Amino acid sequence: MTTTMTKGLLMVISGASGTGKGTVCKKLLDDIPEIFYSISATTRKPRPAEVDGREYFFISSEKFQTWIAEEKFLEYAEVYGNFYGTPAHVIEEKRNEGVDVLLEIDVQGALKVMEKCPDGVYIFLLPPSIDELCNRITNRGTESPEVLQKRIQSAKNEIDTGKKYQYVVVNDSVDAAVEKIKSIIAAEHCRTKNNLNLFRSIDR
Ligand code: 5GP
User: Fold this and answer.
1) CA–CA distance, 192 with 57 (Å, rounded to integer)
2) Which of 31, 55, 59, 123 has the most CB atoms in a 10 Å sphere around its CB?
3) Mean pLDDT over all residues of the chain?
4) Relative to the CA of 44, which ligand 1 atom is closest?
5) 39-99 belongs to which CATH class?
6) What is the predicted pLDDT for the residue at 41?
7) What residue ranges do the domains of the chain occupy?
8) Centroid of ligand 1 to alpha carbon of 76 (angstroms)
9) Which residue has the higher pLDDT, 90 or 151?
């Protein structure tokens, strides 16, 4: 990083399952393609439209365990029976190049990253209502009623964790939620603590 370059932001977008994190992040990345999206590794099988190395690195459970042992993850978590992990090395590299990095991870993962990276920007997405959250979880899967009930209960429990984040954005409309996140990004770029290099570069 040159002395006049500002370090990129680490932005973590998280929220209970069913709050629409994936859709919001996709629109944000379409609008601001300069953001580096950190691709997670997962042991989950790809869904029909998913491509290895684009949505996720789809890896075996054995490989995932090896990566844990080699400390390749900034954090990892088990989410509904599959493992998901954030590869560590590329994040600092990109930030040092002045590039903003986006992580879209579950609540357990976000809490671990908060401990390790206190300079991150933590944004919690809230569903517009509990009814809407239940609808989204129910409409999305082919799971049994028991599994659905478990998911709905754990999503409700996760909502309280949102109080630990710096920002909360209600995802009532994707466009509106993305506009709010863009405002957060703009404000974070103007924080004095993120711009001390500008003071140094001003000739006095
Ligand atoms: P899905 O399988 O639907 O793509 O994702 C399931 C959940 O895993 C979502 O809540 C998603 O945010 C979360 N997730 C994706 N990548 C990671 C990761 O690297 N770490 C953690 N902790 N959660 C992740």
Assistant:
1) 36
2) 123
3) 93
4) 2
5) alpha beta
6) 98
7) 1-35+100-204, 39-99
8) 9
9) 90
